[in-house]
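Exercise: predict the structure of this protein bound to pyridoxal-5'-phosphate.
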Amino acid sequence: MADFAAPLDARCVAAWKTETWRQQYSKRIKTLAELRNWINVTPNEAEAIQRSEGKYRWSITHHYASLMDADDENCPVRLQAVPNLRELEAAPDAETDPNGDIANRKTNRVVHKYPDRVVLLVTEVCPVYCRHCTRKYHTTDIGGTYFGETEAGSYEQDFAYIAAHPEIRDVLLTGGDPLVYPDDKLYEILRRLRAIRHVEIIRIGTRFPVLLPARITTEFCRMLEEFHPVWLSTHFNHPKEITEESAAACDRLLRHGVPVQNQSVLLKGINDNVHTMRSLLHGLLKIRVRPYYLYHCDNVVGVSHFKTSLQTGQDIMDALTGFTTGFSVPQYIVDTDLGKISASRQVLHRAGDGTVRVENYNGQQRNLGSAVW
Ligand SMILES: *Cc1c(COP(=O)(O)O)cnc(C)c1O
Ligand code: SF4
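Solution:
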């Protein structure tokens, strides 16, 4: 399948292991020529990289690239990281913001959708731009962002909003990936949040344990310890991503008292079968990471080729529930502008016309059309 038969550069492949996270971060793969040192790029991937220029960002850490199968274009790691022509196909029903982050944005960074908790969109940058990102418009899309202003803007209004709303007890730092920021910048954000008395817990959403585990240094974990209770959610999608390095990163967090949870996305051709999902979940328990959510793949522009059917997700859930450790089974969720809604068979029933009536925690209802499934 490869259009290019050069031998892969073995020196390049091993060097990252001894580098600091900053070195690894700055040396991310960003060109076709660099990528060819790691995998035999197919014509589809090469053309997708060329046609993505000016449209979608891509970059791949050496750690994540080291997990890619050099010859299999359907490798689950490769599918998540290397641009593909299917991203550029028209998907008439897809949306840029199906979960209503923009509609619920209160300041440049604060998205306030649930009564007692908010999201703080710290950045639009990521170490790897996941092809399936639900915030693709904010991260991977060069023309888009969820920021009201720019990423560089002051945080004062964001902190002031949270301080002025005593009902906010839970703040989730996300992005993009907040851990692209250096520790001192994160320290300042955490310090300001902790100074707000009604903020009970701080959560961080980051894919660094999977994409660049060296980022989770002991110094970083010690810093988090100062701001407890701090919880962390990460994003493993496939058992291949559970490596010695990612296990060690999660172990460091856990030893510093930071509980680590996992949010996966159900992705066609990556983890949409019981066998893969079971080994992912069991692999997570072995590294003491607790499965939290399994998201139904959102109907996002450029992501449609990863969507599965509701039936597929429900069948996987049915094959897990009761058959294995209770807390290895995540909650299967569809995210909507009304919030996260259970997609389990017990709750969601697809009508004959393909639509589903869903109701959120607050009794609000919405009809999800067949394009969602
Ligand atoms: C997912 C999300 C949260 C957190 O939801 P939990 O179910 O508590 O994990 C908060 N705010 C927004 C806008 C979200 O999308
Ligand atoms: S790391 Fe998270 S926010 Fe960044 S591209 Fe991947 S899924 Fe999206």
